[in-house]
Each structure stands twice: as structure tokens, then as C-alpha cells.
Design brief:
The structure is a single chain. The chain is mainly beta. The protein has three domains: 109 residues, Immunoglobulin-like; 39 residues, no CATH class; 81 residues, no CATH class. The chain contains three helices and 18 strands. Strands 3, 4, 6, 7 and 8 form a five-stranded antiparallel beta sheet that branches. The chain is globular.
């Protein structure tokens, strides 16, 4: 059944042009399959001491099948994100790519981190066989440079510094990510991920209530260089929802922030915007990335 539309002269011209484009893409041998949506690769690139990279001379490179795609490190690009690469994707419906640097689904790839003129193979890429995901999707890949001789996912430089502060002289082969060495109940991996000063193993990431500004509770905690912090709220401890917040330096009525990026070691206070009406007994927690 064909439905005839009563179009104006201009509308008919637009319709015919659209049909012509559709036909061109389906003629055998025609060059004209449109690109697929890009795939986003993003994450947090860190140095061998676990500190997120922040220099403008730092870049992340994706390599695949002769294609090299580069993303510059941008501090505070997102919550727990300082780099991103938009990978051009081809629909894979013809033998010819729509552009030379386009990739297809499941293409193998690896990542490199370049600092000034030095190219580093991140710990996460050792022995890794990564395959590109679907077009229109996104994959988070955190990258850490340095060596990891005992294969626990923590760079050797950080582990040696941590052991030194504890006065321990043990080989890295005798410890792993689950080792508890500081006597504070934290595993080695937990201490590393918290991003606390490596030369102060007695420090702890603690969130406290500093009071209220109007109806907004004020959370206080130590902020570490290059880290991002997001506030989550829950009324039942099961379902957690991101909440916005304001900073003490914000002007009255300023829009809330979805996350806080700490550019230095500092004491942080966040004035949390509770949902209206705020549920009685709402629980709050801070996500560190």
C-alpha cells in the first residue's frame, strides 16, 4: 500500500532528495555507507605513584591496525576522568572504510601514555588483549604507568615508598593487593586507591559532618591532588543517587556541582543539595575517584 502525501513544492524537493540519498547508499559498489557513531574511550591516567597526570605535555594514544588516535590529558575533565578519545567507527557494511582512521567493532587495540617525549606502556596493558566495543558505546580504561613486578596492579614505585614509610624491608614478591601492613585495617590496594599521601600511612580518608548551611548538610574531608569526589544519597542504604552540591565560595543561588576536582591537597567542604522534599533520615556518602 502506498500513501501519497500532499506536499508543497519545497517539501517534495526535500523528500526526493532524501530518497536519492537512500538509493545511493544501496547501489552495489557505491561508496556512501555513513559512519557509525563513535566509541568513547575514557578514564584516569596516573603516574607511578598513583597521582593522576595533569601536565599539558601528557597524552594518551590508542593504537589499532595501523591507526593512531591521540587524546590530551585534561585535569578534571570529568569525575575520575582526565582523558578521552573519540574513536571513529565504520559500519563495516562495505570493504572500504569511510575514513582512513576509522575502526570496526571488535578491532584489537592497545593504549600508550606519552609524557613529554617518553612513551610508556601502562601496567593495565601488559598482556592485555583489548577489543573495541560497539559504536555509540563507551569504555572506561584507567591507565597507570610504571612497573608492576609482582602483578598486583599497584606500581612498584608506590609500593617501595609505602614500605619505606612503614620501616619494612621485604621483597615485593612477598606482598600482594590484599596484604595488610599499616595496622589500620586497610589492604595495600585500598591504601593505594584512596590516593592518600604515600609517605603518611597513618592518614585516613574520613568524611565528617561540619554542620548545616540552611537545610544543606556540610560534608568535610581531605582532598587529594588530581582526585574527584561525588556525593551520593540514599534513604534505604540500597539505592544511591548522585546529588549536587555547592562550595563555600559559590555565590548565592549558584547552580550545584555534580563533582569536585581537587587540584591540590586541601581541606574540602561541600554543601549538599538534598532532594525536595528531603527524605527523613537520608544517608550520604562520598565517592572518591
Amino acid at each position: 500500500m502506498t500513501k501519497i502525501l500532499n506536499l508543497s513544492k519545497g517539501g517534495r524537493a526535500i523528500l526526493l532528495a532524501a530518497v536519492a540519498v537512500w538509493c545511493a547508499g544501496h547501489v552495489p559498489g557505491a561508496k556512501g555507507i555513513p559512519p557509525a557513531p563513535y566509541h568513547l574511550i575514557y578514564g584516569l591516567a596516573k603516574d607511578s605513584y598513583g597521582t593522576p597526570l595533569s601536565s599539558a605535555n601528557c597524552f594518551v594514544i590508542l593504537q589499532s591496525q595501523g591507526v593512531h588516535l591521540t587524546g590530551q590529558v585534561i585535569p578534571g575533565l570529568g569525575a575520575g576522568v582526565n582523558y578521552q578519545i573519540k574513536v571513529p567507527m565504520d559500519a563495516g557494511q562495505t570493504s572500504q572504510l569511510y575514513r582512513p582512521d576509522a575502526l570496526t567493532v571488535s578491532a584489537p587495540f592497545t593504549m600508550l601514555v606519552v609524557i613529554s617525549t617518553v612513551t610508556n606502556l601502562p601496567i593495565e596493558m601488559t598482556g592485555a588483549g583489548l577489543l573495541l566495543g560497539q559504536s555509540g558505546g563507551a569504555t572506561k580504561i584507567n591507565l597507570t604507568i610504571g612497573k608492576d613486578s609482582n602483578g598486583d596492579g599497584i606500581p612498584d614505585a608506590w609500593e617501595y615508598a609505602y614500605l619505606s614509610t612503614l620501616g619494612l624491608n621485604v621483597p615485593l614478591s612477598s606482598i600482594n593487593a590484599n596484604s595488610m601492613l599499616a595496622g589500620n585495617g586497610q589492604t595495600l590496594l585500598q591504601a593505594y586507591l584512596l590516593g592518600l599521601p604515600v609517605f603518611d600511612p597513618g592518614s585516613a580518608f574520613q568524611v565528617t559532618m561540619a554542620g548545616f548551611v540552611g537545610n544543606s548538610p556540610v560534608l568535610q574531608f581531605p582532598g587529594m591532588t588530581g582526585r574527584s569526589y561525588t556525593v551520593l544519597g540514599s534513604s534505604d542504604l540500597n539505592t544511591w543517587t548522585p546529588l549536587t552540591f555547592n562550595l563555600p565560595t559559590d555565590a548565592p543561588g549558584a547552580p550545584g556541582h555534580p563533582f569536585f576536582y581537587s587540584s591540590a591537597i586541601q581541606n574540602v567542604q561541600l554543601q549538599v543539595n538534598l532532594p525536595a522534599p528531603a527524605a527523613a533520615g537520608m544517608y550520604l556518602k562520598v565517592l572518591l575517584q
